[in-house]
Amino acid sequence: MSTVLAPCSGAVLPVTDCVDPVFAGQIVGPGLVIDPPDGDATVVAPITGTVVKVHPHAFVVAGADVGVLVHLGINTVKLEGRGFRVHVEQGATVEAGAPVITWNPADLPASVEGQDISRQVPVIVLDVPADSLDLSGVPEQVKAADPLFASP
Predict the structure, then answer these.
(1) Exposed e or buried b per residue across 120-151, where buried means at least 16 C-beta atoms within 10 angstroms of its C-beta
(2) For the chain, which terminal residue's Cβ has fewer other Cβ atoms within 10 angstroms, N or C?
(3) How confident is the model at residue 151 (pLDDT cuts 50, 70, 90)?
């Protein structure tokens, strides 16, 4: 089992509260959502591992026994990287808590191309069944790099 760290600060919500039905339905995998506060924020690696995919708005880190997807906002792919500063390259090895992307959720527009933008940050464990995480004892508020939950 690995401890998954909070990639950013904010209020912790059940993944079922995500405004995106794909994340809310745990189609990608189980996890949580963080609602970040306004202000410049550096998003950190939730686990130690390899950055197998990195976009300005999302990244995946694969560790020894688990992969974690962090998605910065909903429909933020439409921003085409505007407002995000990436600090790592795909294929890089990162330690849990290492800086990955900097952004400011307050800078997100309300919508782009007719699609609502949300600041919600899904933190999803990949390749495990829905509802397979023990999320009891998860804090209501976290700071970046705080322990969030244990992966299966």
Answers:
(1) bbbbbbbebeeeebeeeebeeebebbeebbeb
(2) N
(3) confident
Q: Which sequence positions are flagged as catalytic?
A: 71
Structure tokens at 32: 């949580």
User: 0.90 cut: is pTM over it?
Assistant: yes
What is the distance of C-alpha 21 from the center of its chain? 16
Cβ of 24: how many Cβ atoms within 10 Å? 16
Question: Contact at 8 Å (CB) between 152 and 128?
Answer: yes
Phi and psi at 68, nearest 5°, equal: -130, 130
Which residue in 39, 68, 51 sits closest to 150, CA to CA? 68
112 within 8 A of 14, measured Cβ to Cβ: no
DSSP state of 23: H
**How far apart, in whole angstroms, are the C-alpha atoms of residue 75 and residue 147?**
27
- Altogether, the residues listed in the chain come to a count of 152
Positive/negative CA dihedral, 64, 59, 42, 18: negative
β 67-71/58-62 pair status: antiparallel
Closest to 33 (Cα-Cα) out of 20, 50, 47, 52? 20
Q: How far apart are CA 144 and CA 8, in angstroms?
A: 4
Dump pLDDT digits (tens) for 118-132: 999 999 999 999 988
